[in-house]
Amino acid sequence: MADNRRWWALVVIALAQLMVVLDMTIVNIALPSAQADLNMSDANRQWVITAYTLAFGGLLLLGGRISDLAGRRTTFMIGLLGFAAASALGGAATGQGMLFGARALQGVFAALLAPAALSLLATTFTEPKERAKAFGVFGAIVGAGAAIGLLAGGLLTEYLDWRWCLYVNVPIALVAFAGAWAILAPGGRHPDAHLDVPGALLGSGGMLALVYGFSEAASRGWDDGLVVTLLVAGVVLLAAFAVWQTRARVPLLPMSVIKDRQRVGAFLTVLFVTVGMFGVFLFLTYYLQGVLGWSPLKTGLAYLPMTAAMIVGSTQLAARLLSKVPPRTLIVPGLLVAAGGLAIIAQVGVEPAYVSHVLPGMLMLGLGMSTAMMTSISLATGSVAPRDSGAASATFNTAQQVGGSIGTALLNTIAASATATYLTAHAGPGVDKRLLQAEATVHGFNVATWWAFGALLLAALIAGVVVNAERAPTPQGAGERTPEPVDTLG
């Protein structure tokens, strides 16, 4: 019975994680409709995305420690209810300020929810084979969530209304809440876990400054005074945070979490993978809609093959091999395959190239990235003391969010610069301006995609050098006969 309850717990945890991940992209396709409906300016519309990632990325470390302090199940359920309420508020927005505030609230509760979900998974599945299967499912969701969000955004926007891209979270969250109430038992609190207030202020402040700075760089440029000030302040605050963590009685981020070689390798790998991936999703969406003129629904459907490839990579490749081979033999080849997919995508032109370039590139990207991501998740949360599982999970999620924010800002800036340079170089009398604009836009996307290709190669190099474990670790204190679900399951 306990085994069955563990797998039902996986369903609940996976459902919540899917909601959090897909909400990072589901509004992308709906954004033009929301902008027109609420009279947003071009300068302000980015806050629909930025308000969410800013709160989410900036508060993750704090959310992870609250999970250790208040209990994983309690934090998980509070996060679900708060996320549902914030989503309903955003769907009912009557103005841009109300929508921005609701998206920020979503980020706050996502910062509670995501670390609790991952730490619940890590402490529920401790037997190696079961753990591999569970993390395969979770890895597929983490990898495919962004693509599923684009598909869902296209469907909801085309057939209902952009507001349903937010309303849809309410039933999902309530179903997950009911499942958590029925399946997950109270527990998971650690009496020696205390809230490090100075660490929370320094760490969250530093992350907020960095995420905000990178987000603003996309529109303001890297040499803008506000951007430079934010990035410098973020680095200084995070440096102060690191020093404080070596002196705090109960640190927000225990040094044991980041001293482990395998976890550091996993965190850095995920950071650079998401640097490359988030911008590419955005470019592909604009290429399909803006250059090829596809509808939101058709654009969303175009991502289905990549989603299928992600599921295969996580559940059929990584999950089956994780307990049998060294982790880097999954991560490195996976990232090289994904980088090969980007190399194909980076060669598209203004003519339709979905079948010849985008589709094979997406399949390679999905298969390789999901294999690497699922293995990295297992490395990031393995061999962590139960009392620090929330902090380790939050650090993993932070690497994702920071990587995504950096990648979106950096690659957008590179694409815009390459587009402007191309326009200047090729403008002249008798040139078809519409065709030139399309060619310049695609050129900018291609240049930025090559940079994303480089980020994945760097991630593969880091994984090959740093990750040297013979097998993926399991949580501390886990035994083969008595896994640790007593903390999380009734």
Describe the structure.
The chain is mainly alpha-helical and 490 residues long. It contains 18 helices and no strands. The chain is globular and about 70 Å long. Mean pLDDT is 79; it is low at 476-490.
How does the SSE layout of this entry go?
Elements: H1 2-22, H2 26-38, H3 47-70, H4 72-91, H5 96-124, H6 128-159, H7 164-167, H8 169-183, H9 197-220, H10 225-245, H11 255-259, H12 261-291, H13 296-302, H14 304-321, H15 328-345, H16 354-381, H17 389-426, H18 433-466
Helix pairs in contact: 1-5, 1-6, 1-8, 2-6, 3-4, 3-5, 3-9, 3-17, 4-5, 4-8, 5-17, 6-13, 6-14, 6-16, 9-10, 9-17, 12-16, 12-17, 12-18, 14-16, 15-16, 15-18, 17-18
Sum up the overall morphology in one term.
globular
Catalogue the unreliable spans: 476-490
Q: Round the Cα radius of gyration to an integer and report it.
A: 22 Å
Into which percent range does the helicity of residues fall?
over 70%
Please give the number of β-strands.
Answer: 0
Q: Helices and strands: which structural class?
A: mainly alpha
- Mean pLDDT rating: 79
Tally of contiguous helical segments: 18
| C-alpha termini separation | 10 Å
What fraction strand? under 5%
Oligomer: single chain
The major sheet is characterized as: none
